[in-house]
Amino acid sequence: IRDRTWHARRRVTITCANTFLGIHCVAHILRNSNCVVVLPLRAPTLAAKRALVQEACDKFGVTAVDDADLKKRIVFIDTDEFDDDATDVIHVTTAMNSLADYESVKEANVLWPSALAERCVRSGAVFHYVSTLACLWGIEQADEATLPPLEKAWMARHTGVTQSKIVMEHKLKAMAARKGLKYCVYRIDMLGG
After folding, report:
1. Which residues contact 110 (CB under 8 A, 6 or more apart)?
2. Contact, 87 vs 10, CB < 8 A?
3. pLDDT digits (tens, 9 = 90+) for 69-95
4. Which carries the bigger pLDDT value, residue 72 or residue 40?
């Protein structure tokens, strides 16, 4: 993000803002743009949602969200709500247990992001999907445009999380072709804490 003026017109929803990657995305966007940031969080009150964000800041060493001026650009909504005014939706990974099987992460990593992507189609928002470089394991001469066929997702070396990411990337590609979804995939690797 370099052009603060252009980004002043953006309204960015970031899912899972109380996770390591989520809170760092929030901080980066607040620090480097004039965007309004919308945070869907599961908590009963606005104060409880703010507390979740503060806990994540404290836990993961993020200070950018502490500034009162920046807090004016944060809007909180419930997890099951969708901000129809969003220009962008950044879906940060939710189920990251590397030992989990596909069925145990399917709800969080395939069904929920699929519903978000459908809502982006209807609203015109760009869907930014955080995936994993593990999707490329076992593919010779892979590059960032390579996506393994679905049958390769169930190779022994892929965990349920990686399988869910491969399935979701295929779904996004199909939604773009059939429904005009605008999307970006970000494959990260070796994220830990």
Report:
1. 164, 167, 168, 171
2. yes
3. 667 889 999 998 999 999 999 998 765
4. 40
pLDDT at 90: 95
Pairing of strands 74-78, 88-91: unpaired
**Per the structure block, which two tokens stand in for 192?**
């830990």
Instruction: Report which residue type is found at 44.
Output: P
Cα angle for residues 73, 75, 76 (degrees, 5° grid)? 150
Is residue 187 packed enough to be buried (19+ CB in 10 Å), middle (13-18) or exposed (0-12)?
Answer: middle
Q: Which residues contact 95 (CB under 8 A, 6 or more apart)?
A: 104, 105, 107, 108, 109, 161, 164
Distance CA 176, CA 153 (A): 21
Which residue, among 54, 151, 185, has the nearest Cα to 39 in the 3D structure?
54
Q: Which two tokens stand for residue 121?
A: 């189609």
How far, in Å, CA of 189 to CA of 149, rounded? 20
The pLDDT of residue 34 is 85
Q: Which pairing describes strands 74-78 and 126-132: parallel, antiparallel, or unpaired?
A: unpaired
Residue 12 CB coordination number (10 Å)? 25
Q: In Å, how far from its chain's centre is CA 157? A: 24
Helix axes 46-60, 20-32, angle to 10 degrees: 100
Cα 148 from Cα 167, distance rounded (Å) = 10
